[in-house]
Write a structure and sequence with these properties.
With 322 residues, the chain is α+β, with helices and mostly antiparallel strands. The chain contains 9 helices and 8 strands. The strands form 3 sheets. Strands 3-2-5 form a 3-stranded antiparallel beta sheet. The protein has a 3-stranded antiparallel beta sheet with strand order 6-7-8. A two-stranded antiparallel ribbon has the order 1-4. InterPro entries: Band7/mec-2_domain, Band_7, Band_7/SPFH_dom_sf, Band_7/stomatin-like_CS, Stomatin_HflK_fam. This is SPFH/Band 7/PHB domain protein.
Length: 322
């Protein structure tokens, strides 16, 4: 009997010792009540409580958690029905407030987020809900963080996932987008045609300018070439006349010398002067500045007779004029 009583005492003592030891995992915290009132908070690690007097009433993680908000219907400021769902990132920063300030913390947060989403969407028009999503997220984060602060909760991030208009609204939006695309395509097409026309006209104008410049350069070069040809021809004619004059002078000098030694050379001198006279007429007739030259054939013998008399009377003058 005594042994049985001893075994009972040992069992009770062992259960009491086991009940007095509490091991809290890293990232968690626990609340302990003593005789129905809050006593202390258990930190991660090994903790001791009074058996049968202290009671662990709440144990939760203090790590960040994700709260999935189901889709809900909202009405925008322009009376368009949409469905919105979101995801909220949050964590407990004060375990005592999270347990004693609100009942069923997660349910309270879901309803609070839904209310805030409806309020924010009701202040925006449909187009703004798609373009101002980041601003909506910031507003929800600020409002939820302020609202949950008395519950010992810190909201770190809020993200709207899907904003889905009703079927009728989606169809009208698709029609609007299709019309907008057609309008942009027509504008781009007209701008392309205009640029093509401008480029074509610009190309034609540049081609005409280049063609005119080429013709102008061609005319200038041709005029310069003709001018050079005229100058060269005049120089050649002048040089030819000079050479002929020199040849006649040299011939006259030689004939004059022969006259002194041979009186019969007068006939040759007469022929030479006659040929020079006729050659002068041919040269004048070939000149570009000459038009018409009249020569009386009957005057040629008289001219030759005059030359003969000059040569026969004054042979010495030719010789002295060497």
């Amino acid at each position: 009997m005594e042994q049985f009583f001893l075994l009972i005492m040992l069992a009770l003592g062992g259960s009491a010792v086991a009940g007095s030891v509490k091991v809290i995992s890293q990232g968690n915290e626990a609340l302990v009540e003593r005789l129905g009132s809050y006593n202390k908070k258990l930190e991660p690690g090994l903790n001791f409580v009074v058996p049968f007097i202290d009671k662990t009433v709440y144990q939760e993680t203090i790590r960040e958690k994700v709260l999935d908000i189901p889709p809900q219907k909202c009405i925008t400021r322009d009376n368009v029905s949409i469905e919105v769902d979101a995801v909220v990132y949050w964590r407990i920063v004060d375990m005592e407030k999270a347990w004693y300030k609100v009942e069923n913390l997660q349910s309270a947060m879901v309803n609070l987020v839904l209310t805030q989403i409806r309020a924010e969407m009701g202040q925006l028009e449909l187009d703004q809900t798609f373009t101002a999503r980041s601003q909506i997220n910031e507003l929800l984060l600020r409002d939820l963080d302020i609202a949950t602060d008395p519950w010992g909760v810190k909201v770190t991030r809020v993200e709207l996932r899907d904003i889905i208009p009703s079927q009728a609204v989606r169809e009208s939006m698709e029609l609007q987008m299709s019309a907008e695309r057609r309008r942009r395509a027509a504008i781009l097409n007209s701008e392309g045609e205009r640029e093509a026309a401008v480029n074509s006209a610009r190309g034609k104008a540049e081609a005409q300018i280049l063609d005119a410049e080429a013709r102008q350069k061609s005319v200038i070069l041709q005029a310069e070439a003709e001018q050079k040809a005229i100058v060269l021809k005049a120089q050649a004619e002048r040089q030819q006349q000079v050479l002929k004059a020199q040849a006649i002078a040299e011939s006259a000098e030689i004939i004059a010398q022969k006259i002194d030694s041979n009186p019969t050379a007068n006939a040759a001198l007469e022929v030479l002067f006659a040929l020079g006279y006729l050659d002068m007429g041919s040269t004048i007739g070939q000149s570009d500045s000459s038009k018409v030259m009249f020569i009386d054939p009957r005057s040629i013998p008289a001219t030759l007779e005059g030359i003969r008399s000059i040569v026969s009377d004054k042979p010495d003058s030719l010789i002295n004029g060497r």
